[in-house]
Amino acid sequence: MIHEREALGGSPARELALDCIEAGIEAADPERAIAESVSLDGDRLTVGERSYDLGAYEEVVVLGGGNAGGRMASAIEGVLGDRIDRGVVVTDAPEETEKIEVLPGDHPVPSERGVDSTRRMLDLANETREETLAIVLISGGGSALMPAPAEGISLSDLQEVTEALLASGAEIDEINAVRKHCSAFKGGGLARRAAPSTVVSLIVSDVIGNDLSTIASGPTAPDARTFEEAREILSRYGIDPPEAIAERLERGVNGEIEETPDAGDPVFDRVDNHVIADGFTALEAVRDLADERGYEPLILSTSVRGEAREAAKTHVAVAEEVRRTGHPIEPPAVICSGGETTVTIRGDGTGGPNQEFALSAAIELRGSEGIALASVDTDGIDGASDAAGAVVDGESVSDRETARAALAENDVYPYLEERDSLIETGATGTNVNDLRVLVITSPEANR
User: Fold this and answer.
1) Domain 30-148+183-225+260-277 belongs to what topology?
2) How far apart are alpha carbons 7 and 10 in whole angstroms?
3) Does residue 394 carry a pLDDT above 80?
4) Fewer CB within 10 Å: N-end or C-end of the chain?
């Protein structure tokens, strides 16, 4: 999975950190998640603890998308086979399928081909009826991959506001609150189009706390956010949106445009949402592998957020405490965490939150022995780069001032690349948010 793995290793701590990263991503594979969560016995389709009688429906269609959309489409075909009549899924990691059209989109900034693909998917949703069972596949990255500009808004308007929000350091739920109110698909929009069919959503979550309204901007989930809140978010981060978006939000605030559907809306009467994999899925796999290798595991949190470079310092502090005092666990140990950190763009370089997390940690670890850290985005795309993240240790930074300058310019990619620290996986076919692994060897191992 990890390209040029040999160049990234070099020590037991780094090797184990990379093994843990691979184990976590593999555990979140949508094919594995669907195999464990979905089954078919005759006409009885079971998802989690819910069952659906396929004999009660005239057709089965598949809709949706996201980073894991291709893998999910392939997996659901493996379960249902010819019981699927038709389908359209949008992703940036295509898979070979027979019944479901897998169409292209782009991430993290929406594209024209994503608009075309999403339009085809929404056309199919519009054709569903009460006798339809609509299986919706949703995963992280869906907000950008499935753009459906609302009337009067252009793709360039969406791209401009998305890029501004990503650079501002806004949290993902804030970014999505704006995108939902500029879309014909997000914020319950797909559920509204598919009503009154029965909608069964299978969700691979990349969101802290699995907030259904935030994952891929909640196409089949109620939206508690409002036009007023979307406008306030743009104001809070000093973003001056394109005129068409500003005008739409203003009209929404004035009640001239229908709000996104909330929890009381009847479009959700026949909608079931099932989370089949999330960040904890990956962390459990890391925990189990660490235990197998004789390392004491600790899941620090699935909800780490905030500025990447600052969160990294806290992680290093915990690792140092473990190594120095044996608290809260004794070395050798593996500490892992999930969630999603952010980067406030101040410079004009290349990188991403996981790369900044890793370099910030490396600065703190300089000269330390027996500690290695790997940090990746599980979809294989960290920020707008071709790297998933990076692996570092106490030898990764020789000159702290140069490293700090790279952070200040948000230009960490070339710094890490020169030191054979970038982790590249390509598109992984899943997305359960960030995954970070700290390996702390026992003091005796370095004597």
Assistant:
1) Rossmann fold (3.40.50)
2) 7
3) yes
4) C
pLDDT at 217: 92
Distance from the Cα of residue 157 to its chain's centroid: 23
Residue 123, amino acid: D
Pairing of strands 86-91, 59-65: parallel
The ranges of the chain annotated as CATH 3.40.50.10180 are 30-148+183-225+260-277
Rounded to whole angstroms, the Cα distance separating 346 from 168 reads: 9
pLDDT of residue 29: 95
Please give the Cα distance from 68 to 74 (Å, whole number).
10
CATH 3.40.1480.10 assigned to 5-26+279-442: yes
pLDDT of residue 446: 54
- Report how far residue 2's alpha carbon sits from residue 19's, in angstroms, rounded to the nearest whole number: 9
Lookup: tokens for 161: 């506001």
Query: For 24, what's the count of Cα atoms within 13 Å in the CB-facing half-sphere?
Result: 35
Question: Would you state the pLDDT for residue 161?
Answer: 93
Cα–Cα distance between 116 and 107 in angstroms, integer? 15
Whether the predicted pLDDT of 240 surpasses 90: yes
In single-letter form, the type of residue at position 396 comes to S
Residues of the chain with CATH 3.40.1480.10: 5-26+279-442
Residue type, 199: V
CA 213 to chain centre: 14
Q: Residue 172: pLDDT band by 50, 70, 90 thresholds?
A: confident
- In percent, the amount of the chain with pLDDT more than 70 equals 99
User: What's the N-to-C CA distance of the chain in angstroms?
Assistant: 32
- Nearest Cα to 67, choosing from 98, 39, 25, 38? 25
Sheet strand arrangement including 86-91: 100-104, 86-91, 59-65, 132-139, 198-204, 271-277
- Percentage of residues of the chain with pLDDT beyond 90: 92
Mean pLDDT of 266-287: 97
